[in-house]
Write a structure and sequence with these properties.
The protein is mostly helical. The protein is built from six helices and two strands; from the N terminus they run ααββαααα. The protein has one domain (7-123): Orthogonal Bundle (Multidrug-efflux Transporter Regulator, Chain: A, Domain 2), CATH 1.10.1660.
């Protein structure tokens, strides 16, 4: 006989709040069996799915990526239209883990690319700032020469331009 857990038990087992379980169920479209009163009844397969979801969240995946992994695993198992139903414990978990690993790898690769782009942007911003500082220096030097010429001192700003 299969054992079912109530939401409070699952929350305690997974060390998360009940509202988090309800959020995951709703956002990931996880179908949880209900009793005659409408109370949730979590199976071992549901617990496995939730553990996987929590692991993926810890790895940095967002809800959309996790939902995609769960839907893909379910679709590959039963050949149905996209949409998640209760997750089967054996093959489906293995498939989800495989998909999740690929998503994690892709996520890691994207994070590395993002880091490289941020570094490149920082270098470009530094070069722009250096050019701006240099341009400001030249403008200041030119204005000082022009003022000095207007006051009748120093060399001509025109000679400064010719010297450049």
């Amino acid at each position: 006989m299969e054992r079912f857990y109530k939401i409070g038990e699952v929350a305690e087992l997974l060390n998360i709040e009940q509202h988090t379980l309800r959020y995951l169920e709703n956002s990931l479209k996880i179908k949880i069996k209900r009793d005659e009163r409408g109370d949730r009844m979590y199976s071992e397969a549901d617990l496995d799915t939730l553990r996987l979801v929590l692991q993926l969240k810890e790895k940095g995946l967002n809800t959309t990526a996790i939902k995609l992994a769960l839907e893909t695993a379910q679709d590959s198992e039963d050949g149905q239209q996209p949409g998640l139903v209760s997750v089967q414990p054996e093959n489906n978990i293995k498939e989800m883990v495989s998909i999740a690993r690929r998503i994690i790898e892709q996520n890691d690769e994207l994070m590395q690319q993002n880091h490289k782009l941020e570094e490149r942007m920082a270098r470009l911003e530094k070069k722009i700032e250096e050019r701006n500082v240099e341009r400001e220096k030249k403008i200041d030097e030119f204005l000082n020469l022009w003022r000095a010429e207007q006051e009748g001192k120093g060399r001509s700003w025109l000679s400064w331009l010719r010297g450049k």
